[in-house]
Amino acid sequence: MKERTHMNVPIDEPPMTPAVSISIIFTLFLGMLSAMVPFSMDMYLPDLPKVATDFHASPSLTQLTIGGFMIGSALGTLIIGPLSDGLGRKRPLCGGLLIFTLASIGCMYVTSVWELIALRFVQGLAGAAGMISPRSISTDLAKGPALTKLLAVLMFVNGFAPVIAPLIGGQIVRFYSWRMIFAVLAVLGVVMLIGSLCIKESLPPARRIKGGFSRNFAAFTTLLKKKYVLGHCLLQAFIFMAFFGYLSGSAFLFQRIYGTTPQEYSYFFFFNSVGIVLGSALVTRLVHRFTEYQMMRFTLWWTELSLVAFSLAVILQAPLWVTAATLFCVVSPIAAFGTVTFAAVLQRESAFAGSVTALLSFFGTVCAGLSAPLVGIAGDSSAVPMAATMLISQSLGLFVFYKFIRPEHISSH
User: Fold this and answer.
1) Which DSSP symbol is given to 112?
2) Closest C-alpha to 350, from 59, 85, 131
3) d(CA 72, CA 235)
């Protein structure tokens, strides 16, 4: 097998076909790992008002418990990614899960909102192992359409987290304190840690990046100098900025402008989440018929045109069902898009799977947070800023696709 050199470090070329048979149980385990971060964030959302009351804290200060978690997750990806390329997938994963569990236990006993913010940051930092490791392990075990299908299954499992997490959180606080949320997360951390200790290492020593953490961290510079990788990082940033515009503004759109109740809004959110899950499931059916590039191009244009329709519905103050239908079309392809984009770039940079996954996750997470203040710039009386933010972000993503990514695919064929 030929060798190639990255940063003067010899790396064995990974096999082009799956090296092992991947069981359904193992796939579900990887999916649960990848769902830990969204589950940790979404299950906690219904409890924010109670946290603010208990600590006599302002809503904005209480929301930092969410912001701190997201910042920790973003930074954690940049640490876990290089470590997993240099040390293997198993040790960083187990270390992250152990710290995540301890931080969750600590959150149960905090006495101030600042202690909760700090521990939530640590929780997000360590929980990033659940974001990085499943995709990196998938890249170690599968290539080509098999990798795309495996990533689609992970996204399918992951897609259930935003659907059920707020429901579970809401039921917990009906009968217990919000602190019980973190007891559940601690138990989840223990279960995932035990499972991670039982799995085999997927990245053998011969395929790891040698030279210590500083050399592994330097992979970021090498990767970002590549037009294709940079293009995918920017694409993640803009597309998920548009998607988080939906997450930040949809409650105000439906409840304040269209006058729906919180319960009615939850139905719209539920159906949109189901659309996201079905979108990821569709990829598993199409992966052998279309390339990642073709599916990426289709999902981008579908979302772009759907956003144009949604923007017109907002501006023209269309009936509720019209606006809801166009928004459903906007958000449904997001999981499918995430699957094919990750698969496309991981196929090319499989030797740096951990670092590539870290960069894509970091760009998507950090830039997604920028959409919230833009969406609410006009208060809760107009959804035009929401529509404009989403459409502009999506259009910038489409521009990046044709500027950075499409030429690379054309030149390779």
Assistant:
1) S
2) 85
3) 22
Extract the tokens encoding 154: 């992970």
How far apart, in Å, are the Cα atoms of 62 and each of 7, 47, 115? 44, 10, 11
Q: Which two tokens stand for residue 131?
A: 């974001």
Q: Give the largest CA-CA distance in the chain.
A: 64
Query: Quick one: which of 279, 126, 130 has its CA closest to 196?
Result: 130
Dihedral of CA 116/117/118/121: which sign? positive
| End-to-end Cα separation, the chain, in angstroms | 24
Q: List CB contacts of 339: < 8 A, sequence separation 6 or more.
A: 148, 151, 152, 155, 280, 283
- Burial letters 316-340, b for 16+ CB under 10 A, else e: eebebeebbbbbbbbbbbbbbbbbb
Q: Which are the contacts of 352, defined by CB distance < 8 A and separation ≥ 6? A: 6, 85, 209, 219, 222, 223
Which of 299, 339, 22, 293 has its CA nearest to residue 155?
339
Q: What Cα–Cα distance (Å) separates residue 318 from each residue in 161, 257, 322, 326?
A: 31, 11, 6, 11
What digits encode the pLDDT tens for the residues 189-236?
A: 999 999 999 888 888 888 887 766 666 677 788 888 899 999 999 998
**Helix (H) and strand (E) counts for the chain?**
21, 2
* List of the chain residues with pLDDT < 50: 1-19
Q: Kindly report the pTM of this predicted structure.
A: 0.73
* Three-state DSSP class for residue 19: coil
Report d(CA 328, CA 270) in Å as an integer.
10
- The token pair at 397 is 């993503």
Type of residue at 124: G
Q: CB within 8 A of 333, min separation 6: which ones?
A: 279, 299, 302, 303
